[in-house]
Amino acid sequence: LKMSWFWLYLPLHLLVEAYLCHSIKAPTSSSQQSFKTDLFNFYHSLILADGKETTVHLLKDIPKRYYFVLEEGRALAPFTITVTPCDVPIEWSVLVHKASASFLGKAAQGDHDTQDGSKSQKASSMVSTIFNYKGNSVETYMGMSSHSALYMLEFLSTERDTHITVYLTTDTTSGHLYPELPMDPRIDVIGTGHTTVTLTWKHSPSVLQHRENIQYCLLVNEKHNYKSLCAAETAIRSSGMKLPPALALSLSPYLLEPQQVMILSNSELSIINRASSGEVRQICMGTKNTYTVPNLRPSTQYYFDIFVVNLLTNASAAYTGTFARTLDEPEPKVTELKDGKVIQVVLDGKKQKSYSLQYQAKHKKIQFTFQLCRGQVRVHITKNGKTVASENISGLRYFSLKGKLLDTYLVQVRSTEETNSSVKVQVSPHFHKPLFPLLPESLKIKSFSKLRTCNSVTIAWLGTQEESKYCVYKKKIEEDQIWLELQNADRCSGPESRQKSEKVLCKYFYDINLQRAVTTETIKGLDAGTLYLFDVYLFGSSGIPVRYHSKVVKTRKKC
């Protein structure tokens, strides 16, 4: 069998048989060398499937070739080839080998004379490049195929090993594998805020025709736009994250990796991938073509890509990406702190999460006092622009600082959760009489289970070495109210917020020996089998109270 281009029209198993036959009947060294060359080309040249997306892996600087032919007897017909680079730019070409129908007929009949051999050599030289592209964009070639022409696709990556997808179809009557893009595939930015960007885009014709099988998915990142979903997947994986197939955009129930967070709300799927290189979000929003991206950072440039995805095939088409910068974070209002004056800062966890206070030192030694009233708060203190303290506040916290006269201190109070938070702040010279009373080691209230009766409970709490006033309050509470009552308790509020009927008693006590600075109290006149919430308030010389941690105790049902 003399090798000629017609063998590419044969099924693969016949090609292999032809090579084996050639190896037996061609013992000469030159023929063997020719055979080895043809065999190498064969294994590096594959028949491209019609109507199916093929993934092609490319090695750096090694070209890879694919061929395609029409079915026997098919007349002139249009065809399209779509190539999607998934990483670096590649170069690809469409080459055509033109041969006469009479030659192909003779070749297929097995005519091996010398004249046909020369025809084969002449035919093999009739190769021309009809299309060439270099880049990383999704590119489609449309042409007209004939049964008397053989096409070859050649792919080359010169930067590094990579992979691409190739889709060939000669059937233009059925639906498209890839969703269609509108005539204007741009994404418009119609609004920007401090933490949001609103996008809109024109509908894909595929959405209007096959709404149940098509959806839009948005990719958000801080590095650059992606020209295909395939390229986005590759980039995210190379950053150290593992992804489910097709970025889980088809809503398939793939398990997420530890670096991923999935959020499903209002029929929208959001997948957040976190890596050292930044955060990448994928959001699928069905068929609506306007979307406001939430929870962005102020003063940050983001890149947005919209993909229209076929849920049945996972094939996708990319709109032209865009970018936008969120607005700068507004400068927080700065409140002046004055010596000895107490300011209560209330923070809305959803709207205003931070508050700034400024103080110009009139003394070398000063003391900041923070009393957490509700929620969770973090305090950050700078002196002349340099950080001197930063921590989460729990209960009562003092910061004693030393500096120079007229040093400028900036205090930033920030809520660490989305619920409302509040904190009291005071600054005073270090030698001033403290605003808040001296506190014991613990502000916990203890109850004694063995001393409980049907109409009384006994509680105890720690005192200090300083004589102070302690007031006890109680109120009935239902079991389903316990968590809410403890969660929403304002630890800065004093007895003035309580009803007079809730007051049990007030007493003074102290002990020089801290080991004995403990007091107990038995509260009588309670109802059997009832839950009670007990509070103790400590008053210092300034009159500002500190509330102990509330304690819930239930009286015995039977005695």
TrEMBL record:
Alphabetical keyword list: Glycoprotein, Neurogenesis, Repeat, Secreted, Signal
Location(s), subcellular: Secreted
SMART domains found in the cross-reference section: FN3
Keyword Ribonucleoprotein: no
Signal sequence segment: 1-18
Main location: secreted
InterPro entries hit by this protein: FN3_dom, FN3_sf, Ig-like_fold, NDNF, NDNF_C, NDNF_Fn(III)_1, NDNF_N
Entries under PANTHER family matching the protein: NEURON-DERIVED NEUROTROPHIC FACTOR, PROTEIN NDNF
Role according to the record: Secretory protein that plays a role in various cellular processes. Acts as a chemorepellent acting on gonadotropin-releasing hormone (GnRH) expressing neurons regulating their migration to the hypothalamus. Also promotes neuron migration, growth and survival as well as neurite outgrowth and is involved in the development of the olfactory system. May also act through the regulation of growth factors activity and downstream signaling. Also regulates extracellular matrix assembly and cell adhesiveness.
Protein name: Protein NDNF
Phylogenetic classification of the source organism: Eukaryota, Metazoa, Chordata, Craniata, Vertebrata
